[in-house]
Amino acid sequence: MFSTITREFYTSQLQQLNATKQRRQCTTYEPLDSTHVRLEGRTYLMMASNNYLGLTHHPSVIASAQEAITAYGTGSGGARLTSGTYPLLPQLETQLACFKESERALVFNTGYMANVGTISGLLTKGDYILSDALNHASIIDGCRLSGATIKVYEHNNCEHLESLLKALPTTGKRLIVTDGVFSMDGDIAPLPDLITLAKRYEALLMVDDAHATGVIGQGRGTAHYFNCSQDVDIQLGTLSKALGSEGGFVCANELLIDTLINRSRSFIFSTALIPAAIGAAQQSLTLLANDTSLYTQLQHNIDYMTQALLRQGIAVTHKTTTTGLVHDYQPTPIFPIIVGSAEKALQLSQQLFEKGIILTAIRPPTVPQGASRLRLTVTAAHQESDLQYVADTLGQLI
Ligand SMILES: Cc1ncc(COP(=O)(O)O)c(C=O)c1O
């Protein structure tokens, strides 16, 4: 029963979020193309999406989604293991395995479900998970659901990770798990060092390439970027960001994929992805594998934005120092502009909105207290004039 006490609980919880500027709301925008949206008759420039290659509106990707619907209908009708495996799914999995230089792939309905289902499907009570402090929420949830003991290592700190590995008992399986490109910071995991530790301490290594697929390593992700695909046990990704579709995937050897088909609850107990999503992802992958121009354009735009922000004196962590000199340059499209308080981030986001730019304020609990930010993302579809306008406007406001 929805009692007064229950109502008061939820009301007070929302009021508390209001008071700390952490309350969230969904805003409905009408997408016009991959970089513009409309709201109440006004057009805005989208600088907050993960549509890194602009593929959501690519004519051939749209056509492929439409063909998939025409051939196989609007829904899959059931879970993969009951009624849902129509031919496009294994075709896409073959394509993904080849793209990621892996033995085999398995498609999930979202990247979130891929993380939750993979980690909880492979690890259990008595096992150990070593997880980077800035890993995505879906990794954290997968770790919790597995029942394994979770050890969190300081962000990208391999010395700390090794000290935790050294202290583990000899029983149980071990998994080191990291974002490839970190979702809120845009920096890259030190994969070669993680591989060394995984080998030394006999741990499985899993990389979440949600923000690396289509983005680094010729679009093939973090392992390809470091030229070490054969040494990463599990490469996870999503179809929903650079690939312009919806869904998640895992690439690994036959044994691990077969285990997931039998043990991963988010895979087993959910209706298979719809044909339109698979058709779109197939064509996005085809484009990415055969045509380097989108990837090159994204890299150009990342570089352009880095320089434009630098000229405005805006320091972007991992791309600039506070003196404004580029050091440790990392070619990712995520620019975290850290402003501190949630209030300040919201205020800037609103000012940018008034200037026709959508740049969402990212606040706790997504990022730590005091590290609220604007998470600026650049795509291949942005024009240089768009990027310049955003950098100039930020320069005036910050
Ligand atoms: C690092 C990371 N992993 C996984 C996901 C989840 O992917 P999806 O949006 O496809 O569920 C996200 C999405 O925000 C992410 O940033």
Task: Determine the mean pLDDT.
Answer: 94
Unreliable runs: none
Oligomer description: single chain
For the largest sheet, list the strands in their spatial order: 4-10-9-8-7-5-6
CATH architecture classification of the largest domain: 3-Layer(aba) Sandwich
* CATH topology-level name of the largest domain: Aspartate Aminotransferase, domain 2
Total individual domains:
2
- Structural class by secondary-structure content: alpha/beta
Describe the structure in your own words.
Helix 6 (137-146) links the parallel strand 5 and strand 6. The protein has 15 helices and 14 strands. Helix 4 runs parallel beside helix 12 (275-290), helix 5 runs parallel beside helix 6 and helix 5 (111-122) packs across helix 10 (254-263). It has helices spanning 4-19, 59-72, 80-84, 88-99, 111-122, 137-146, 158-166, 191-200, 222-225, 254-263, 265-268, 275-290, 293-311, 342-354, 384-397, and strands at 30-31, 36-39, 42-46, 104-108, 128-132, 149-153, 174-179, 204-208, 234-238, 248-252, 334-340, 357-358, 361-362, 372-377. A seven-stranded mixed sheet has the order 4-10-9-8-7-5-6, sandwiched between helices. Helices cover 42% and strands 16% of the residues. The chain folds into two domains: 22-51 and 292-397, Aspartate Aminotransferase, domain 1; 59-290, Aspartate Aminotransferase, domain 2. The protein is globular, with a radius of gyration of 21 Å. The chain is α/β, with parallel strands linked by helices and 398 residues long. Bound molecules: pyridoxal-5'-phosphate. Pyridoxal-5'-phosphate (PLP) binds next to helix 5.
